[in-house]
Amino acid sequence: MHEPTVKELPAHGVRAERIEKRLGGNDVLRGVDLIVRTGEILSILGSSGSGKSTLLRCLNLLTVPDSGDIWVHGEKLAIRSESQHGGQAEILDHRQVRRVRASMGMVFQSFNLWPHMTALENVTEGPVLVKGIRRNAAADLGRHYLAKVGLSDKAGAYPRHLSGGQQQRVAIARALAMEPRVLLFDEPTSALDPELVGEVLRVMATLADEGRTMVIVTHELAFAREVSTRAAFMHRGLIEEESPSQKFFSSPVSGRLRSFLASHR
Amino acid sequence: MDGFMLQFVNGLKTTVLLALVSGALGMALGLLAAAGRLSRWRAVSVMVGFYTTIIRGVPELIIILLIYFGGTVAISAFFGRYVEVNAFLAGVVSLTVVFGAYTAEIFRGAVLSIPTGQIEAARSLGLHPWQAWLLVILPQMLRIALPALANQWISLVKETSLISIVGLTDIMRVAAIGAGSLRAPLTFYLAASALYLALTSLALVIFNLLERRFAVPGR
């Protein structure tokens, strides 16, 4: 018996191969390989500028990689790589990308709620517009997920009347209401005041306990250590080290990871 | 003066109709132009940029004259005999072109003031770009643009008076004829001023109502 190689993986989860991305003249990603198996909670750590957010955004093509391949639930995303003659990389099958995005919830650093809609409307528009769920059914669904993030009483509130922690929990409910197969978190607590970080992390820990597939880009090392099954450390556009969470945090191999962990204690 | 009452009423109708038609068409043109200016296609963006820059940089009066006389020359050439362009039509075309250029810039600025993260959130849920536009951009953009649009509409009402130069019998032309024939310029121009002021005040009231009606909730 041997460890399954990338090609032999079952047709689920997310996998990225040789992802390259240049942004503003910098090589942000330099040929990254990443696998996220179903049920796995992968934390991606690294100092700012290491490419971890860009890598996450490549998984649902909010950022289109210059080259490389991405599979989501066994389906290869149709992208045209950047050509030698300066042609931009681009999405070839927009319908496919919309379908794949609907199956991958994303939570942003800056919440990105729509300010002209109530919390409930923020949560229900996705299911209505993308999945064609009827409005009343979607409202029930929305209330269910608002309750799940502890905000049943805020359904009618507009984002500007919510604290940052509450806004981020609405944003999590918005992602959950699509009933996605994978959740992507892009530094979900980095924009929050310290006293509001805990409420968001608690919601995320609940989701982790449910066995959801999650990819978390974060600076919260203690949290990553607690909830993730696997962790990856990025440095200058490459994954420097990647291992099961236990091993990653207790016996890191790379010197850079060791000093990173030491400096973020 | 009595005989001019009826003429003023007709002039008022012409002015209001001209403002409403060219305002509505101009806003539609402005929305299209703003979309073009923000488009990924560089050629479209550059062309729309030329349009808004040139139109905003040339006096309205000259644009009106160019369209009136240019239109007459073009149509006469087409029919092979002299055809004079209808003054109202020339007014609608030139004011639409002008209004479109100004509102395009207003709409563009309003769209750009919406944080891109909100669009990304919509895209991350799998929304079609059109859905994201209707759900996220349009309602917020119109609210942001309302105060500037109110200003532009007031300018438009006043600019309709320029069309009298090519013979349109609007408030301005009635006043000019009356002022000349009855030798009472002050009376007639004051009367015209009162009519324009009434129209622009009405526009202001309507826009105030709109701003209140579509105020960002919860603010």
A few lines on this structure:
By secondary structure, chain A is α/β, with parallel strands linked by helices.
Descriptive notes:
The complex is a heterodimer of chains A (265) and B (219). Chain A has 265 residues and is of the alpha/beta class. Chain A has helices at residues 52-59, 94-102, 119-131, 135-148, 164-176, 194-209, 221-227, 245-250, 255-263; strands spanning 14-23, 26-36, 41-45, 67-72, 75-76, 79-80, 90-91, 104-107, 182-186, 213-217, 230-235, 238-244. In chain A, the strands form three sheets. Chain A has a six-stranded mixed beta sheet with strand order 8-9-10-3-11-12, sandwiched between helices. In chain A, strands 2-1-4-5 form a four-stranded antiparallel beta sheet, with helices on one face. A two-stranded antiparallel sheet of chain A has the order 6-7. In chain A, strand 4 and strand 5 (75-76) form a beta hairpin. The longest helix of chain B is centred in the first third of the chain and has 36 residues, at 2-37. In chain B, helix 6 packs antiparallel against helix 8 (185-213) and helix 7 (171-181) packs antiparallel against helix 8. Chain B has helices spanning 2-37, 42-57, 60-79, 87-112, 116-124, 129-159, 171-181, 185-213. Chain B is built from eight helices and no strands. Chain B is flat, with a radius of gyration of 21 Å. By secondary structure, chain B is an all-alpha fold. Classes of the chains: A alpha/beta (265), B mainly alpha (219).
